[in-house]
Specification:
The protein is 73% helix and 0% strand. It has 154 residues and is mainly alpha-helical.
């Protein structure tokens, strides 16, 4: 893995999270508009509220899925050849990682973290297998999207 793959992964994360946010906002705003302008509300339109909640939970799952980039994840799981790439681009990779974990006010001394401490820090973050949960949620999300579209078209 190299810096180009890292940049590609971060771009995918940004696009997917933006899509999930827009989908959630559009479902919720559609429901609100239906509530305002219709006198007789059919029960099937309440599914838009649940779908918007599902989209917002999807945003959380997307964040947890991409919380630790694959480059750093592979390094923490024993691929020591990746540390030179991480060290050369630490202003980009580690700064993005710690900014997403701790916010803009993270401790700047974390950028000078040793390889062993970085491995230990990443392994402490990954108590659950978010990659597996993310794939399961994606299947559930696609199923619920199809059901929502089907119910709304009835």
């Amino acid at each position: 893995m190299n810096i180009q793959e890292y940049d590609k992964e971060r771009l995918i994360y940004a696009r997917i999270s933006l899509f999930a946010k827009l989908l959630g906002y559009s479902a919720l705003s559609s429901f609100i508009l239906i509530m305002i302008f219709m006198k007789d509300i059919h029960i099937k339109y309440s599914i838009l509220t649940y779908y918007s909640i599902l989209c917002r939970v999807g945003g959380i799952m997307i964040f947890k899925y991409y919380e630790v980039p694959n480059l750093v994840h592979d390094f923490a799981n024993g691929n020591d050849d990746l540390y030179p790439v991480i060290h050369e681009n630490k202003d980009k990779i580690l700064k993005d990682l710690f900014k997403s974990l701790y916010g803009l006010g993270f401790d700047r001394t974390l950028l000078e973290i040793s390889p062993e401490d970085l491995k230990k820090h990443i392994q402490e973050l990954e108590r659950r297998d978010w990659k597996k949960y993310g794939k399961i949620y994606l299947g559930f999300f696609i199923l619920m999207t199809c059901i929502t579209i089907w119910v709304l078209l009835l």
